[in-house]
């Protein structure tokens, strides 16, 4: 295979002897300064590219919102309310982007570098808060000068002009990113020095029979929802596998607090106590626990625990600020909070309030969405039952006009079951299924499951530990 050596044309070879300095200046210090300058340039170039990419994403989202916003509403009052709603949404998105950029530029930055150099392209970012404020002032001015002016036409024109401005800004950002990436790739560094001349591809052959251990490991990562039957032992005895029927399994990818001290820290609501606790457990100042505590805030708000949710938000942001303020970030942050640095306290608490309010709004939206989905699901189930219900109180299995043999087999088995079991299978309600199984003996329950699984009405996932025992199977 021919080897591509062209990559090494960009390799810059230097020697300490290449650096010349005045005899009165220590050469080793000069070399370190030179290296520090190179590291600073590379770091600021990476941060600039990341900032521009974040701005590109923000601009795309804002442009989409403005394009899709309809100004054809006849009721001007409702139109203004809708417009103020998207203004608030865009302002929140802009603030979140600025917050991410500030954390990125200050995270793990050498304090000896000083503040970043001003950049013309970055500073020319569209400030949506100011643009929205300008639109509002124009609206007030037009209403005062001409109360009869056509608000709908004026607003559409203003929004289209802002979209055009965003489009021009996107073009500038694209060119600047290309320019910075070209400059970034001119020289080979430890960051971009990967296999270029000696590439090879290895294709793994698919395994025919995966080991049971792998399957078990995969299943162990899932959260099981267990519905116990009448055969479940009392609380004083240890439950057996054969005494439960697992109706469904749910993957839980959402983060909860996995570390005891981090969990304890999330309940603290005092700066001095937080400072003391972090001094005893400095390991919790980590991105992992910051995210877990913030996720806990979301779950707490979902569970109607607002006080704990707000506490989690505050403690998560404490970790974030301590991390972003550099090597001495912990003492610097708490010094400002505890000693009464009013401006710093005000900024931090404003961040806490904004983050918590965002979670509150998000939870409200999710709950409304869930309620709507549940209502729609209930409506579909009722419609399905109504279609399947027969005059004698039994039900039929719904099939297509040209059913397959498998569907015919399901319908035949379904017709042999009692109406209560038929209804439970049509709705797939775990409570109804559990109630039916609770009235049966263990053998009757196993026979029902076997009969339904063989016909395809339900699906059984075999347990790896004991594939022969139907009581240990999972009802999916």
Automatic annotation (TrEMBL):
Residues 356-385 form a coiled coil. SMART domains: CDC37_C, CDC37_M, CDC37_N. This is Hsp90 chaperone protein kinase-targeting subunit. Residues 180-189, 210-228 have a biased composition (Basic and acidic residues). Residues 2-201 form the Cdc37 N-terminal domain. InterPro entries: Cdc37, Cdc37_C, Cdc37_Hsp90-bd, Cdc37_Hsp90-bd_sf, Cdc37_N_dom. Pfam families: CDC37_C, CDC37_M, CDC37_N. Residues 388-474 form the Cdc37 C-terminal domain. Keywords: Chaperone, Coiled coil, Cytoplasm. GO terms for biological process: protein folding; protein stabilization.
């Amino acid at each position: 295979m021919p080897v591509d050596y062209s990559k090494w044309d960009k390799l810059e070879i230097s020697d300490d002897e290449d650096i010349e300095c005045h005899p009165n200046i220590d050469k080793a210090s000069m070399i370190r300064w030179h290296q520090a300058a190179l590291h600073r340039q590379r770091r600021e170039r990476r941060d600039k590219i990341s900032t521009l990419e974040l701005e590109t994403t923000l601009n795309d989202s804002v442009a989409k919102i403005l394009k899709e916003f309809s100004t054809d509403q006849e009721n001007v009052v409702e139109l203004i309310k809708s417009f103020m709603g998207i203004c608030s949404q865009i302002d929140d998105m802009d603030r979140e982007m600025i917050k991410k950029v500030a954390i990125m530029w200050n995270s793990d930055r050498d304090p000896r570098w000083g503040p970043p150099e001003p950049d013309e392209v970055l500073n020319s970012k569209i400030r949506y808060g100011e643009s929205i404020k300008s639109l509002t002032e124009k609206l007030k001015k037009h209403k005062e000068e001409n109360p009869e002016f056509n608000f709908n036409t004026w607003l559409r024109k203003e929004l289209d002009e802002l979209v055009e401005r965003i489009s021009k800004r996107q073009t500038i950002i694209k060119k600047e990113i290309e320019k910075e990436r070209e400059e970034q790739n001119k020289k080979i560094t430890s960051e971009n020095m990967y296999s270029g001349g000696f590439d090879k591809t290895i294709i793994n052959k698919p395994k025919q029979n995966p080991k049971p251990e792998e399957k078990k490991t995969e299943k162990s990562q899932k959260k099981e929802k267990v519905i116990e039957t009448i055969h479940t032992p009392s609380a004083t005895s240890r439950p057996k596998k054969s005494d439960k029927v697992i109706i469904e399994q749910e993957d839980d990818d959402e983060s909860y607090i996995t570390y005891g001290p981090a969990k304890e820290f999330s309940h603290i609501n005092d700066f001095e106590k937080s400072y003391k606790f972090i001094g005893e457990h400095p390991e919790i100042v980590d991105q992992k626990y910051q995210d877990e505590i913030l996720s806990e805030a979301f779950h707490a708000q979902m569970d109607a625990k607002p006080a704990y949710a707000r506490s989690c938000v505050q403690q998560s942001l404490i970790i974030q600020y301590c991390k972003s303020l550099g090597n001495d970030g912990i003492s610097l942050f708490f010094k400002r909070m505890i000693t009464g640095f009013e401006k710093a306290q005000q900024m931090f608490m404003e961040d806490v309030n904004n983050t918590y309010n965002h979670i509150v709004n998000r939870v409200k939206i999710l709950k409304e969405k869930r309620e709507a989905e549940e209502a729609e699901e209930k409506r579909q189930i009722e419609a399905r039952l109504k279609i399947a219900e027969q005059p004698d109180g039994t039900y039929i299995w719904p099939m297509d006009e040209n059913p397959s043999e498998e569907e015919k087999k399901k319908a035949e088995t379904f017709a042999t079951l009692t109406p209560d079991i038929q209804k439970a299978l049509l709705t797939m309600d775990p409570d109804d299924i559990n109630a039916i199984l609770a009235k049966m003996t263990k053998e009757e329950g196993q026979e029902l499951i076997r009969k339904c699984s063989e016909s395809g009405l339900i699906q059984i996932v075999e347990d790896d530990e004991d594939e022969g025992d139907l009581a240990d199977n999972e009802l999916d």
